[in-house]
Amino acid sequence: MKKLTKSNDRIIAGVCGGIAKYFGFDSTIVRLVTAALALFTAIVPSVILYLIAAMIIPDASPKKPEDDGPVFYESDQK
């Protein structure tokens, strides 16, 4: 089951990126649609909805370093 979370690919709070990932759209398209809606609705309602979404939508789980494979440090190499 898919879960709506904020994106780590974020510009402000990750809301548009998270919505884009959830619905399978490009995040740039979602950001442009959000900006257009903000302009056509006198900005205030869109900003309020965005702030509410930023507070309600949970953060994506942070990427763990071990997901990238082994990490080698200079002190490990002899």
From TrEMBL:
Residue ranges annotated for the Phage shock protein PspC N-terminal domain, each copy included: 2-59
Keyword match Membrane: yes
Keywords: Cell membrane, Membrane, Transmembrane, Transmembrane helix
Membrane-spanning residues: 29-57
InterPro entries assigned: Phageshock_PspC_N, PspC
Membrane topology of this protein: Single-pass membrane protein
Subcellular localization: Cell membrane
Any Pfam family: PspC
Domain of life: Bacteria
Name of the protein this chain belongs to: PspC domain-containing protein
